[in-house]
Amino acid sequence: MEGGRDNKRDSWMEDLKRILNLVRPYWRRIALAGLCSLIVSGLNGSLAWLVKPVLDDIFVKRDTRLLALLPLAILGLYLLRGVFSFFQSYLMRSTGAKVVRDLRNSLYHHMLYLPMGYFGKDSTGAMISRVINDAGAVQGLLAYTVKDIFVESATIIVLVCVAMIRRWDLTLIALTVLPLAFYAAGRLGKRLKKVSKMAQKKISLITESLAESFSGMKVIKSFSREDDETSRFRNKNQDFYRELMRSTRIIEATSLMMEFVGGLGIAFVLWYGGGLVIKGTITAGDFFSFLAAIFMIYTPAKRLTSANNSLQQARAPLERIYKLLEEEKESDGSKELKEIKDDIVFSNVSFKYSGTKEDALNGINIKVKKGEIIALVGRSGAGKTTFIDLIPRFHMPQVGGIYMDGMDISDATLRSLRSHIGIVSQDVILFNDTVRANIAYGKSDATEEDIMSAAKAAYAHDFILEMPQGYDTVIGERGVRLSGGQRQRLSIARAILKNPPILILDEATSSLDTASEMMVQKALENLMESRTTFVIAHRLSTVRRADRIIVLDKGRIVEAGTHDELLAANGLYRRLYDLQFDDSKADLEGSQSVNQSISNQSTNRLIDKSTF
Description:
Number of strands: 10
Helix content: 55-70%
Distance between the termini: 69 Å
Structural class: alpha/beta
C-alpha cells in the first residue's frame, strides 16, 4: 500500500513538474496574473467586510452620510474587481494559448525526427489527436483551472480571515464540513482521471477513423462501403459519448456533493447564529457580515473542486503528450559526409523488425562501385525494400554496418547522408501545393530554369503547361488532381532536381502505361548516368539495364550477376523470370512504337547535365 501511495505521489510530482516546465517561459505573465488574483481576492473580502457597516450604521443607526458614501465605495470596489479580473483572465488565457502553441510546435518537430520504425507502431490519426486534442486540453488547464486555483484559493483565505474576525466560533462550525467535501472531491477526481484517459483514447480512435476514411475515400466508394464505414464511425463515436457521460456524471456528482455540504453548513450556522442575534450576543451586522463571508466561501470552494476535476482531466492528455516527447529521436552521427567518391559496402548486415521473429535481412555482404546500377529482385517479402531503406538510415542494422567511402554511415549526420540520396518510390508522396513547390521540395534555392529543366528531363513539362495555371497549379493532397503517371513523373523531376550521387528507384515506373514508361525510362537513363543506382523493379525492361542483379530470398542474397548470367544459372531468378517477366516481349515491342516519338522529343529537350 505504501508503495502505491508513493507511486501516486510521484505521479503527481511528475505532472506538476511538467506543468511548471510548460509555463516557465511565461513566469512573468503568470506572476502578474497572480498579483491580479490577490487583488481580486482582497476586493472580495472587502465586500463581505462592508456588510456590517451597511446593516449596523445605515439600517440600524440611520447614518445618512454613510448612506451617500457607501454605494460609491461598493461601485468602486466592483469596478476595480472587474478590471483586475479582466487582466487576470486575459493573462492566463493568453498564457494557455502560448503554451499550447509551443507544445504543438514541439510535438510536430519531435515527430518529424522520430525513427521510421515508430510510425509503424502508432496510427496517423492517433498522432494527429496528440497534436490537436491532447494539446488543446492543456490550454483549458492553464486558462481556467490554474486561474481558478489562484483566485479561489486566495479568496477563500481572505474570506476565512473576515469570517474569523467577525465570529471565530461560527467560522469553525461552518468550515468543519469542508475537509470532508474536499476529501470526497479528491476521490472522485481520481476516478475522473481514469475516465478521462479512456476518453482521450476514444477520441483518438475517432480521429484515426476520420484520417483513414478521407485518405481511403476512393477505396470506400469503389467497394460501396459508405454505410459500413458510417456504422463503424458511429460505434466509435458512441464509445466516446459513453466515456464523456461517465466523466460528466462524476463532475456533476462533485457539484451536487458541494451543494449539499454547503447547504448543510449554512443551515446550521443560520440556526445557531440566528439564536445568538436574538439573544443579543452579537449584532445583526456582525452576523450578516460573517454570513456573507461564509456564503462567498462556498462559491470559490465549489470552483476549487471543479478546478480539481479539470486538473484530473488534463493529467491524462498531459501524460500522453510527454510519453510521445520522451520517445527517442533518430540517432544522429557527428561526421559530415561531404562527397561520395568510392564504393558503398554492406558488411555482414542483418536487420530484424521489432516484434518479428525472422530477420528481414541476414548476413548481407555486397560491394557496390560508384556509378554501378544494382537491380534488386525477389519474391514479395524477400527484403528488397528493407535493403534500400537501410541506405538512407530509415532503419539501422542490428548487426554489421554500411560504409560509404570507408565511413560507417551510422557516424555520418543524417542531413549530410540523405543529401546525397534521391528516392523515387511506387508510393508517390506529393503535397497540397503548386507544381513548382513540389518539384523544388528538395532544393529550395532552385531557379525557375532549374525547375523547368528537371520537368523536361522527367517528360513532365508538356502536361504541366496544359494545366490551368501551369507550374503555379495547386495539385491537391497527395497530387489527387493528377493521374498516376503524372504524379510519378513529378516525383522523378523532384529527384532529378536534387541531383544526388545515389539513386533509389523503388518500382519507379510501376504506375505508368507503356508509352509513359518509355518516356520516363529515357529520363531515368539520363539521370542514372554516372550515379550509383539501386533499382527495385518487376519489369524486365528495367532490370536488364542493370550492371548487376541481386536476387534476395528470405533476407539473404542467393544469386548475383547480369541478366544473361542469371538466366543461364537456371536458379531462382530464372523461375521469377518465367513467372513475372513473360510480358517483356510485349514491353519491348511496345517500346519500339514510341521510341521514335521520344527521340524526336529528346532532340528538342537536350538535357544540360551540368545543371543536374
